[in-house]
């Protein structure tokens, strides 16, 4: 047999694996292209291509710079280490072991020397892209016009430049350390470094190489020390933020000394590279460590312990004052007006006469409770829905501004019975219209008084485009539009008079990218994982695809340099002054920073959390972890029909906003472009107010010495309905003491910082009314009034008032009765108002069924002033009860007809029951009489029990049973339900079993 025949045949690699790899690469590339190109199309349609282009260019520049630096550093140093390897390596046992590794590594050397720098550079570049905003701010930062109190440097250095400098130093140090590790290992692998053995342990080339790298690392440490001298002004301290006495007098000079020592040690490494003596840099490194311990650690600790702690109040006063002033500047608290408020606790007749305007505007509808009522009376079809928390706005009713609870009738695909791709994405595409009700008035049977209702919408809000294609709960995407002459297939609204019981429409706006050509269809099919986009006849040459439809998400993507508020609110406005209204979503947006010298740092998510944010699902937005500077610099408006986004410069004096406007010229419109109608519906933002009120729990104290003691700090009261969670702020129209007119305001209260006592210490309100003048904000808008109550007067806080309500005999008995017979009592928001020379509390009480059709109706109102409590069908009656029979003012429900209005709040008869069932005229009176009889029977029972008069006790219990049966029957008659058996619920029982006397 020939040698050729005996040689094994080499197996040829088949084409399958390379083919699969190529196909996989094409698929991945296409998916990446689909994501990027569809993003570009979205920004292009929205008119914000400058934003995405600038962001991508900035990210690309950061990626390229970091990629080149990291990649070049590793590649050059690897090449140098390999090229300067010793040609002859001493034969030692250690080197004999390394020979085997070198032989194994040699076939892979070229791949590693090229691949390792590329992989490391890719990760470095990817990490650096996150710094694109800091890079743009550093390059384009405007002058701030104010200097820090320590170094006298313009604040723009701290806010714009310093964060980017710290990133550069950190990145270069990381690059140098990784490079040094790889370089030392390469020198070791090829014998230039020999930890043991005789003769020269480090070659001259390796010594110079490692010494230079070490010198560079130490120089970066020196740079870090030097930058610490400025970053220290934003330190987070135990008692206050910013540099303290010890920081300024011990840490600051220590950082300078440590930086100088590091520079000296770097020079020693350079000297070693030249002279070859490692002892000096070793001593230098030891000097750095000792200096860090003694100068950087021990010396400041000694100063703090010996000098500061015994004299802290006086020594820290200057720096606390810096912190207070910086905090007021950074958070816009310089507009706070602190006023003492005597807070009378004795209710006198006519006390509310001077507060008649505020009293008439007290909001009875709780936007956090009445959403089910809106659904029941105005949802119309199961594929519509309202948000769980409705919005508070103000509209003109009969020429007067009226607080209004407003909701958008959004599309809810979960309510659709036929869930197919065609229905979900081409038929059910939008919601329809808004529903609005007066905030201060209800019907006699507890229903909202609607200002706007029905489908199509009718009411006080005038003519407007009712179709809602963009809203918080809109579907992920919809495909809309069709060729001219095509029969509409988008469901517009149900109509019994129309063919098939519904009216259809075709979207005619410009709301999304065109999706007519085949390539675009492929891209969007890949993006949304939906092959139907490719093959559906509903996707035509005239089609558009709508996505990113939540107003908050839409604004966040269009302006990624802004932080958005957690809530958006709808408004019906005439944006073009042409008499045709539009539904728009208003989103407040902020510029923020975490680098403002001496300002108090806030964890943003914690500061804006309250009982509402805990209970409802807010938009998934990315918040900064912490901030120490914030401005409501932009008002964003999103059109609910076509999704167009308009950004208005609300605080043009903000240096951060000015810088972003320079970076993205033309993206943000001047305030002068806001017309009067839109201006009248803007308001002070909730998240900013929450941050400010959190700060004012401490920073209402402006004297440094008092601030240090912390003895006068406050806290935000818990929501009485949800222990452990702060009470949310409330929008109200009210007049503050000494004000001539009532203004739309955002309010909150404060109690003493104690877990045991719930005593009111302060009340905070910000003027949230910007006026209705085009392009001009009212002078008082944003003015924060802080009422400080006397420290020697005990004014009940919200928790104490809630306890008084719950324990009041008359109110508790009646609420107990209302909750019987298949009903549930829901207590609404507890409103706090400075009125009548004291503090007035108002809480609406709702009743709903515990089963079947459930929707809350306002049945009672609780009022408290001092220790006096009122409880009645209307706010007006409850106020009179508290103020000796005459409050001196009429509430908004003072004119409510005692006879329920047939069909009140029904709009056009929409809702499951239409809200149109007539209620007998005497049903409400019979309910009132029965409740009064029941209350008297319970009181007589308790008296008889106290006197051990069991005969009287039995008679009182019989009267109680009869009264309960009459009350339940009347309640059922009013609500349209079936009377429940009063015997199913236990009657009032004595506190202990009677015994023989």
Please describe the structure with a list of short key phrases separated by commas or semicolons.
globular, alpha+beta, disordered C terminus, disordered N terminus, 29 helices, 34 strands, 997 residues
Q: What would you note in describing this structure?
A:
- By secondary structure, this protein is of the alpha+beta class.
- 42% of the residues lie in helices and 18% in strands.
- It is built from 29 helices and 34 strands.
- Strands 1, 23, 26, 27, 28 and 29 form a six-stranded mixed β-sheet that branches. Strands 10, 16, 17, 20, 21 and 22 form a six-stranded mixed β-sheet that branches.
- Strand 26 and strand 27 (743-752) form a beta hairpin.
- Helix 8 runs antiparallel to helix 9.
- The model is unreliable at 1-6, 898-919 and 977-997 (pLDDT under 50).
Task: Please indicate the percent range of residues in DSSP E strands (runs of 2 or more).
Answer: 15-25%
Q: Over all CA atoms, what is the radius of gyration?
A: 36 Å
Number of helices: 29
What coarse outline follows from CA principal-axis ratios? Answer: globular
Cα separation of the termini: 127 Å
Overall average pLDDT: 86
β-strand number:
34
Oligomer: single chain
Biggest sheet: strands, sense, closure? 6 strands, mixed
What is the structural class?
alpha+beta
Helix content: 40-55%
Point out poorly predicted stretches: 1-6, 898-919, 977-997
Summarize the structure.
The chain has 997 residues and is an alpha+beta fold.
Structural topology:
Blueprint: H1 3-6, H2 16-46, H3 49-83, H4 93-105, H5 109-128, H6 132-140, H7 155-189, H8 204-231, H9 245-275, H10 279-308, H11 312-315, H12 317-330, E1 336-340, H13 356-360, H14 371-378, E2 384-385, E3 391-397, E4 400-408, E5 410-411, H15 421-427, E6 431-432, E7 434-442, E8 448-453, E9 458-459, E10 464-465, E11 467-468, E12 477-480, E13 490-494, E14 502-505, H16 518-528, H17 532-535, E15 544-547, H18 551-558, E16 563-573, E17 581-593, E18 602-603, H19 604-607, H20 611-615, E19 626-627, E20 629-639, E21 645-649, H21 655-663, E22 668-669, H22 676-679, H23 686-699, H24 704-709, E23 714-715, E24 718-719, E25 722-726, E26 730-734, E27 743-752, E28 760-767, E29 784-788, H25 798-807, H26 809-818, E30 823-827, E31 831-835, E32 838-849, E33 857-865, E34 868-872, H27 875-882, H28 923-946, H29 950-975
Parallel strand pairs: 1-29, 10-17, 21-22
Antiparallel strand pairs: 2-5, 3-4, 4-7, 6-11, 7-8, 8-9, 12-15, 13-14, 16-17, 17-20, 18-19, 20-21, 23-27, 24-25, 26-27, 27-28, 28-29, 30-32, 31-32, 32-33, 33-34
Helix pairs in contact: 2-16, 3-5, 3-6, 3-7, 6-7, 7-8, 8-9, 9-10, 26-28, 28-29
């Amino acid at each position: 047999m020939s040698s050729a025949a005996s040689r094994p045949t080499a197996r040829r690699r088949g084409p399958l694996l390379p083919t699969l790899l190529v196909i996989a690469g094409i698929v991945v590339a296409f998916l990446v292209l689909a994501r990027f190109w569809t993003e570009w199309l979205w920004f292009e349609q929205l008119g914000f291509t400058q934003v995405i282009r600038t962001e991508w260019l900035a990210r690309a520049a950061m990626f390229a710079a970091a990629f080149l630096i990291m990649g070049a550093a590793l590649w050059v140093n690897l090449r140098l280490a390999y090229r300067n390897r010793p040609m002859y390596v001493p034969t030692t046992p250690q080197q004999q072991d390394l020979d085997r590794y070198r032989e194994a590594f040699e076939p892979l050397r070229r791949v590693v020397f090229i691949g390792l720098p590329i992989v490391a550079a890719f990760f470095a570049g990817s990490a650096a892209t996150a710094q694109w905003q800091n890079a743009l701010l550093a390059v384009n930062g405007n002058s701030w016009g104010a200097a820090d109190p320590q170094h006298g440097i313009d604040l723009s250095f701290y806010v714009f430049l310093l964060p980017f400098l710290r990133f550069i130093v950190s990145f270069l140090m990381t690059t140098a350390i990784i490079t040094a590790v790889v370089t030392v290992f390469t020198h070791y692998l090829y014998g230039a470094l020999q930890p043991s053995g005789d003769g020269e342990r480090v070659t001259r080339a390796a010594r110079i190489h490692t010494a230079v790298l070490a010198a560079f690392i130490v120089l970066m440490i020196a740079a870090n020390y030097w930058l610490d001298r400025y970053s220290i002004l934003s330190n987070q301290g135990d008692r206050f933020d910013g540099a303290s006495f010890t920081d300024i007098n011990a840490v600051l000079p220590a950082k300078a000394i440590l930086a100088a020592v590091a520079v000296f040690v770097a020079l020693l490494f350079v000297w070693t590279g030249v002279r070859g003596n490692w002892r000096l840099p070793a001593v230098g490194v030891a000097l750095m460590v000792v200096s860090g311990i003694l100068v950087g650690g021990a010396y400041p600790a000694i100063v703090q312990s010996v000098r500061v702690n015994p004299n802290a109040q006086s020594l820290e006063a200057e720096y606390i004052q810096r912190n207070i002033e910086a905090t007021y500047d950074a958070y816009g608290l310089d507009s706070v007006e602190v006023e003492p408020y005597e807070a009378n606790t004795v209710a006198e007749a006519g006390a509310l006469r001077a507060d008649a305007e505020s009293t008439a505007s007290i909001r009875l509808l709780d936007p956090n409770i009445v959403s089910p009522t809106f659904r029941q009376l105005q949802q119309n079809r199961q594929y519509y829905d309202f948000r769980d928390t409705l919005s508070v706005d103000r509209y003109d009713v009969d020429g007067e501004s009226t607080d209004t609870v407003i909701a958008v009738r959004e599309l809810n695909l979960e309510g659709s019975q036929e869930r197919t791709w065609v229905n979900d994405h081409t038929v059910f595409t939008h919601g329809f219209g808004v529903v609005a009700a007066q905030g201060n008035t209800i019907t006699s049977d507890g229903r909202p008084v609607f200002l706007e209702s029905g489908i199509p919408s009718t009411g006080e809000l005038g003519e407007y485009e009712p179709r809602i294609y963009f809203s918080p709960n809109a579907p992920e995407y919809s495909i809309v539009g069709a060729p001219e002459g095509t029969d509409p297939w988008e469901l517009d609204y149900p109509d019994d008079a129309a063919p098939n019981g519904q009216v259809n429409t075709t979207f005619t706006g410009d709301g999304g990218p065109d999706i007519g050509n085949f390539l675009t269809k492929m891209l969007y099919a890949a993006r949304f994982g939906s092959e139907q986009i490719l093959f559906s006849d509903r996707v035509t040459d005239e089609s558009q695809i709508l996505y990113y439809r939540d107003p908050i998400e839409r604004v966040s993507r269009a302006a990624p340099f802004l932080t958005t508020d957690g809530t958006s609110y709808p408004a019906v406005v005439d944006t073009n002054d042409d008499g045709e209204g539009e539904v728009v979503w208003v989103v407040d947006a902020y510029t923020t920073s975490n680098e403002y010298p001496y300002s108090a740092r806030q964890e943003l998510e914690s500061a804006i959390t309250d009982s509402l944010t805990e209970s409802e699902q807010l938009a998934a937005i990315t918040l900064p972890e912490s901030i120490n500077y914030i401005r409501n610099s932009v008002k964003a408006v999103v059109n609910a029909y076509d999704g167009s986004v308009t950004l208005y410069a609300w605080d043009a004096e903000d240096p951060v906003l000015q810088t972003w406007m320079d970076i993205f010229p033309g993206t943000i419109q001047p305030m002068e472009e806001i017309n009067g109608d839109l201006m009248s519906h803007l308001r002070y933002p909730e998240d900013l107010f929450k941050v400010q009120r959190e700060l004012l729990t401490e920073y209402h104290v402006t004297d440094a010495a008092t601030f240090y003691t912390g003895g006068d700090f406050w806290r935000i009261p818990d929501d009485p309905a949800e222990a452990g969670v702060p009470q949310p702020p409330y929008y109200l129209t009210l007049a503050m003491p000494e004000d001539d007119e009532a203004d739309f305001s955002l309010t909150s209260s404060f109690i003493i910082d104690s877990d045991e006592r719930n005593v009111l210490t302060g009340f905070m309100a910000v003027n949230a009314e910007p006026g209705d003048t085009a392009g001009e904000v009212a002078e008082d808008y944003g003015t924060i009034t802080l009422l400080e109550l006397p420290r020697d007067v005990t004014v009940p806080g919200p928790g104490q008032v809630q306890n008084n309500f719950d324990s009041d005999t008359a109110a508790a008995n009646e609420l107990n009765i209302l909750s019987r017979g298949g009903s549930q009592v829901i207590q609404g928001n507890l409103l706090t108002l400075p009125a009548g020379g004291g503090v007035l509390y108002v809480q609406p009480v709702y009743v709903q069924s515990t089963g079947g059709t459930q929707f809350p109706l306002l049945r009672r109102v609780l009022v408290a002033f001092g220790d006096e409590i009122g409880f009645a069908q209307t706010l007006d009656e409850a106020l009179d009860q508290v103020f000796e029979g005459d409050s001196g003012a009429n509430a908004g429900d003072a004119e409510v007809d005692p006879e329920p209005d047939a069909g009140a709040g029904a709009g056009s008869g929409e809702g499951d029951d239409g809200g149109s069932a007539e209620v007998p005229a005497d049903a409400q009176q019979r309910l009132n009489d029965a409740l009064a009889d029941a209350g008297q029977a319970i009181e007589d029972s308790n008296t008889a029990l106290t006197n051990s008069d069991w005969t009287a006790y039995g008679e009182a219990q019989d009267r109680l049973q009869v009264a309960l049966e009459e009350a339940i029957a009347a309640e059922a008659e009013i609500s349209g339900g079936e009377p429940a058996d009063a015997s199913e619920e236990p009657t009032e029982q004595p506190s202990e079993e009677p015994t023989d006397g």
